[in-house]
Every structure is written in structure tokens, then in C-alpha cells.
Amino acid sequence: MAWHDADSWLTLAFAPHPGTLALALLVVIALPILLHAYIYRRRAPDSFPTFLLVGPSGAGKTSLLTLLSHGAPSATHTSSTPTAASLTLPITTTPASSRYRSNNDPSADRARKFRLLDTPGHGKLRHYALSSLTKTSPGGALKGIIFVLDAAALGEDAGAAETGEYLHDVLLLLQKRHTGNKTSKGPAAIPVLVAANKMDLFTALPQSLVKLRLEKAVEEVRKTRGRALKDSGIELSAGDGEEEEREGLADGYEGTFGFKMLEDSDIEVKVAGGSVKGDKGEGADVQEWWGWVAEQL
Amino acid sequence: MLDTFEILSTSGVVLWSRTYVPVHSYVINSLIREVLIEERTNKVAYGDGTTKPTYRKDGYIMKWNLAKDFGLIFVAVYQSLVHLTWIDKLIDNVSALFTGLYGEQLKGETSNAKFPFDPYFDREMQRVEASNDTSTSSAFEVTSNTEFTPPSSSGTDHGADEPPPMPGLRKATAPQKPIYNPDTSTDATPVPTPDTSRPSTPASRILTGKTRPGSKPSRRDRKVKAAENSAPASSGDETSARKGKAAGKQKKNRVWNEFGADEEDKSINLDYSTVSANDPADFELPDAINPESWGRTTGKGQFVLKDLDEEMDEIIASANAKKESSTAAGGIVGSSLGAIGGLFRNVVGGKTLTKEDLEKPLKGMEDHLLKKNVAREAAVRLCDSVERDLIGLKTNSFTTIESTLRTAMERALTKILTPTSSLDLLREISTVTSTNRPYVLSIVGVNGVGKSTNLSKIAFFLLQNHHRVLIAAADTFRSGAVEQLRVHVRNLKELSKREGGEVDIFEKGYGKDAANIAADAVTFAKENKYDVVLIDTAGRRHNDARLMSSLEKFAKLAKPDKILMVGEALVGSDAVAQARNFNNSFGAGRGLDGFVISKCDTVGDMVGTLVSMVHATGIPVVFLGVGQHYADLRGLNVGSVCRLLMS
């Protein structure tokens, strides 16, 4: 029986046959339902406020994540993929949003929850962090950035240079986010916590010095970036020929860079010391960082 | 011997590790950094297909396996003096075991999970070592056989329950502390209890039966019988000692389970309080035995090893079967249904990618890259790495395979082109000049790629930044080379007069040794307080060993801070060989520091040379030449290059 015969299956399929009609009806009704069930089977994740962990490799980002998520830092190696964890504030710190709430309020529990996004710090993999800065994260609004750095490495020139450059890139992106927006209201501010880790080490810089040293490192990057070559974006993509103006960090200011200059762009930078591993005997010292996180919630 | 075995997630968290000799963490860190992230293939010795690649670092050898779908890395570290042939097998088996046992857990958030993997690893280690060493293996098999025979009853007991393929999973997810941890601890410190303690074991079983009226008496009988059977079957001191161990372990469990029993039901507790007064050890047992699958390991401690073996074999076998079935084609019905489902999923997303799915799009992607002037070798390797990344992954909702592949390729390109460390030339110069010596930059390359032109462009850039620049004419071979530089310097002087920079030429005529001239130029610059020395070299064919050999002497004498190689954007598949040969020509411990890709304005969107060169050596592109003027020098914008390549 060929397909063009009068009683072939193809003819039957196009004939007003009750079976065909029923089948068609079934498909029409079932398809959207199935599609819906298929796509929405996984419910969208609860949108918790998100914090982004950035910082150079070896600063202790992943250690911090494991410490916050289950109480003790586990052994870690260089990360090559980002990871996320949902965390709850410890009972001792109260998030800013529920300051007036009773401790026994069951809904306060929800206000304590947040997501922490750990990103690899290796030079080749920073695009994970920088791209999640610019686009809205799937989990929820980005509430803050925790820039982890090694306070001991900051004392050396190489360490300071790397840290300064990464911090410069992050701050510049944040500034661009502010200046690049079209509406008058401006995007929600993303504060930055510079978490100086490894304060327990003998060679670590004290907290006040960390801030000065960082400002100096960022200033150096800012200076050379301002004079560096333009990048190849326009020439290669041949066409529009439009010179895109390069934006530097805190352009409008004279003198050496300070974190205060960024307040115009709604970037608040706070430096706080602590240590994930902690001194011998005493545990980790992350109270100040918790406090900052609680303030942002 | 093996020093360390670690199981870590790609996000960097060590999930499980076994250390025999402590190894500093930088060893594994450098494996991740250099091999997995930077993909420096020259540091890795690849096997002949059957063996795993090895990576050497500071007297250690590392072998590893990636479980991409779980995001796991299995690393074995051992001293390079030892030759261990069974490492490959160990890694394979352990990765199959670990993913089989904890696959479900690994899907979720891994940072909180605990992995009681110790007994499995020990056993696997023993087995793999034993299979390699014939003398121990025969003795080993005898002992294991005696252990294999008795537990027939426990086997049926287990079979009556249901066929659980992976008991380990259930154990892992069970709320209580896993049972085999106490086992190992007792193994480590054997408590030799006299055989008189043995009668208590069957007795406790009978009591167990009583506690639960639901359980059938027949099973109880069987258990008693099994206990009796096992006694004669196990001969020798060793097994009896094991029995003792088992009894000791049961006592531990009792202490644990007392609380559990307390909470469960008061009435039952009250019931057994009298019994427990006689023999307090007895009444906790119901908890330990209730879950049938545990019973066989906990109730009879001596069979733990056997159970582990069986379980491990099962998991490894299923992992192997999965591998085979994925390569074998299904039946007609299965395949056609699968094809329809596959088409559907291709549109909607959520399809698990296999090698067959990717084959065609990958071929298309490879052709696309070749059209963009990427060298064949680099294109093939890029596609391979993308394929490795994607196999076993699920596509997102409403994304086709092609678009998934596209994003993966874009990611791979970004990763390759992004430099590992900062390429801030000005900053490096200021660091070096602060130590009262000039910064030495030299340029090498094949004939006619634009070495002198790019050198003068760099000089112009430095002059704009108010540096004092000395240009050394170390091309003593080609006629007109020195004169050409002289003209450039004259022009640059004119241009930079207002800017405040200062530029001079250091020349010694033709026919002299280039390396000596370069060294002289550096000392001259030091005496006369120049900030930067730019050394121009003669162009040379990269596969001419005679010409290339002089580069080693050059690097030794002039000690450049930075050696840049100029490559044409026009060059095709030769780019890989050029980059590689030049990179290897400076002797041990010195290589290129970066590429300058010239004539980028002449190729349009066919910028594949960048990728070829970087991929061959892992060295970043520092500058792009985009025109004929001094100012036509640009930094690399990774995003725009990726866009061009993928368009």
C-alpha cells in the first residue's frame, strides 16, 4: 500500500475521521500541558539576596565559603569553576531589615537567608566574576561584593599589584554601571566589602595599612591605565568608526586615589580584617564580615 | 608508594582525601593552574592513549581524572622516583566508585556533604595493589574466598527485601552516622575478645525478633542458622578475631542507638527495660537491624569486607556498562523513539549531550574556525576541549545543541586569549627602572613580519609616556636595517620633541655579533640613564636551527626583561610552528613573554592567527598592529576578538 492510495495512513490522517480528530484534539490539549510541566517542573529558585565573592587567587574565597556554610573551613585548592551556597546569618547578628522584629518571629528566618557566589580568582577565569557583576544574577538581586584579599601578600609588591588591579577592575565596572545607566534614578548601589583575610599571620598588614596600601595599588593601576594603549575593539570590528571614550576610575578627581572618590558613583567601600583559618587555638574571626553582610540584608 | 589521593570539586573544595605522606597544597594547585586552567600542554606528558597523562612538579608525579558531569577532579600524587603501574586503574576505579556512591549527593550542594569513603578506598587500594603483585594476590584470594562462602543467608535475606543496586547510596543518605566508620576504627585497634562472647550474638538476634512482632520467625531462624554456619566455615585465628571485633563494634552501636530507641516509642522501651537490665547490650539492636540493607554489614561484622567488595564490583561494573551502552546503538524502537525525543529536546532543551550529538556541530564549528584562519591543529584541539567540556552536560531550556556549543566555544576562546597575569608594560617599566637599571625589551620574529615597524610603534608609545628610550640596532645582517631604524629614530625625535620623551639609536654597523651589540647597548643605557632599551633583531626562519641557535646566546647576554615575538595576522597554519620554535629557542628557563600580532588591519575578521599562536604556547598577545602609523598599536580586546571569530 503506497502512501498515495485512497486508504493509506496519510490519506486517513487528513480525512475527517473521528479517530484522527480525537488524536488531533488530544495533541492540541496535551501539548501545552506537557510543555508547561516540562519547563516549569523545576520551580524557579527562591530569589535570595546574593553576595559575590571576588578576589585574587589564593586569597581564601572558597575557604570563606566553606567556613560560612558549615562552620569550619575545609581544605581547598585553586578553583576553576564558580560555586554558590545558600547561607543563613548566625543568630547573633541581626539583618538590618529585621531590626525591629522579634527574635521569635518565624518570618525573620527568611530574612536571614542569602546566597553567596564564589568565583575563581585565576587571571583567566575572572570573567565569571566580572560578568555576574554586569548582568543580573539568576538567584536574586546582587546585594554586595565581598572582595577577599590576602593581607600578608599585600605587603609584597607582586601581591599588591595583582590585588590592586583586580580591585580596580571591579570598581571600574561598578562605576561604569552607575555612569552607563540611562534613567535618572540610577541602579541600586552595590557596596563593596574589602575583606582582608589571613590577619592571623605574622606578616599580615594591619587593617589601617591595608586600606592605604590598596588605595596606593589602585592608584598605580589607574595611572598606567590612563596612559596605556587603546584596545583593539574599534579597529577590528571595522565599521562604526566611532571613538568610544575611555572611562577611567574616578576620572573627575585630581590627586591620588582614595575610596572616598567613589562615593559619587554610589560605591561604598569598607575595609575589614579577619581570618578564615584563625589563630592557633582560637577559631575563625569573621564577625566583622558577618556584621557587614547583616547590614546589607 | 602513593603520597596523596585527593578528590576535589572543580570549585576547589577538597571533598575527600587520603594522605600517606603530606604534600604541600601548592603541588596540586599548580596542577590545576597550569594544566586544567591554562592548558599548558607542554608541561604534560601524554600517554599512548591507554595511560593517563602525567604532570611532574618538584619531584612529584601527578595523575588525574576529571569527572566533568559531577565537576570532580581525582588526583593521585606520588614521588617521581617510584614507578607505580596501578595508579591508572586505581584512579579509574575510585572515580567510578565515588561517583556511583555519592552521585545523588554531588548533584546538590557539595560544600556541606560528608563522604565516608575511607573503607572503599582502602579496599580498592588493596585490590589494585594485590592484582599487580602476584605473590600477595594468591594469598589474598584464599582469605577472601573463605570469607565469601558463609554469608549465603545474608544474601537471601537481602534478596527478599528488594534489589537495591547501590546500598552505599542509601547508607549515605540515611540520617544516622554511617555504620562502617566504627568498623574501620575497630579494625585499626583490634580488641581481641574471647570466643565466649560469640553466643551472645545469636541470642541478641532472637531478641531482635521479639522486639518486632512484624518480622517473621523464619527469618530469625535463618539468621541463627547463618550465624552457626558461619562459625565452622571461617577457620583459623584471624576470622575468630574478626568475630571478636564484630562483637566489640556491636557494643559501640548499642550505646549510640539507645537514644534513638528512647525517642521512638516509650512503650516499647518500657517493655524491654527489664530485659536490658539483664543484658543492657541487647535491646538496642533492633535499630541496627531494622533497615535490612544495613543488617548484613552491621549484624555480622566479619562480612563487611565481602560486602564492600561486592558493592564496589557492582558499582564499577555498572559504570563500565554505562560506558559501553553509551557507545553501543539501541534497538530500532528505542532509537526511533530516542530520535523523536532528541529532536524535541533539541528544540526545548534539557537534552543530555553525547558524542554523537556533538559530532556534526563540532565539525561545523571546526570548519568555521578554519575559515577564520585558525590553524588546523589549534582548531582541532579547541574542538576537542569543548567536546570534553560538553559531553554529559544537559542543555538549558530552549537552547539547541548548536547554541550551547557556541557559548562553550566562546568561553573556551575567552579563556585562551585572556592573559594569566597583568600585561601592563608601563607598570613593569616603572618597577624595573626604580631599581636603577633600564628595562630591556627585545623583539624577534620571522623575516618581513614587521619587527622594526612594531618596535618603533612601541617606542612611540613609550615616548608619549615620557620615557628615555634607546633603540639598539642588533640586526647586523640585512642591508639597510640600521638605516631604516635611523630614519625611524629621526622621525620619532621630531614627533616626541614636544612630548618630553627622548630617543636615541645605538648602532655598531653590520657584520658584528648581535648578542654582543645588545649587551653593549644595555650597559651603555645603564651608564647614560635610559629608561628603556628596545632591541631589534634580525629576522630568521623558525625552522632553521643554525639561525635560531644564536637566540640562546642573545638571551643570555642581553638578558631582556621581555621578549616579544612579532607574528603576522596573515600567516596561516604556520603560526603554531613559528610560535613554538621561537618559544623554545631561548634555552631552558626562558621563553617568549608575549606576541605582537602585526597587520591585523589587513585580515578583516580572520583573526585566527591570534588563537593559533596563543594556543600553541599559552603566551598572551600583548599588542596588535592595526595600521601604518606610529600610533596604530593597540592592546588586545578579548571580547571583540571572540565576537569576530564567532561571527
UniProtKB/TrEMBL annotation, chain A:
Keywords, alphabetical: Endoplasmic reticulum, GTP-binding, Hydrolase, Membrane, Nucleotide-binding, Receptor, Transmembrane, Transmembrane helix
Compartments it resides in: Endoplasmic reticulum membrane
MF annotations from Gene Ontology: GTP binding; hydrolase activity
Keyword Protein transport: no
Classification via InterPro entries: P-loop_NTPase, SRP_receptor_beta_su
Membrane topology listed for this record: Single-pass membrane protein
An example Gene Ontology CC term for this record: endoplasmic reticulum membrane
Gene3D superfamilies per the UniProt record, alphabetical: P-loop containing nucleotide triphosphate hydrolases
Positions of transmembrane segments: 20-40
Main location: endoplasmic reticulum
Family: Belongs to the SRP receptor beta subunit family.
Name assigned to this protein: Signal recognition particle receptor subunit beta
Native source organism of the sequence: Lophium mytilinum
Automatic annotation (TrEMBL), chain B:
Disordered as annotated region, ranges: 128-254
Residues in the signal sequence: none
Ranges of compositional bias, category Basic residues: 242-254
Biased composition (Polar residues): 129-156, 182-203
One GO CC annotation: signal recognition particle receptor complex
InterPro entries membership: AAA+_ATPase, Longin-like_dom_sf, P-loop_NTPase, Sig_recog_particle_rcpt_asu_N, Signal_recog_particl_SRP54_hlx, SRP/SRP_N, SRP54_GTPase_dom, SRP54_N_sf
Key words of the record: Endoplasmic reticulum, GTP-binding, Hydrolase, Membrane, Nucleotide-binding, Receptor
The organism's place on the tree of life at top rank: Eukaryota
Membrane topology: Peripheral membrane protein
Matching Pfam families: SRP-alpha_N, SRP54, SRP54_N
Annotated ranges, domain SRP54-type proteins GTP-binding: 620-633
GO MF, any single term: signal recognition particle binding
Chief site of localization: endoplasmic reticulum
Assembly: Heterodimer of an alpha and a beta chain.
Family under the similarity heading: Belongs to the GTP-binding SRP family.
Stated name of the protein: Signal recognition particle receptor subunit alpha homolog
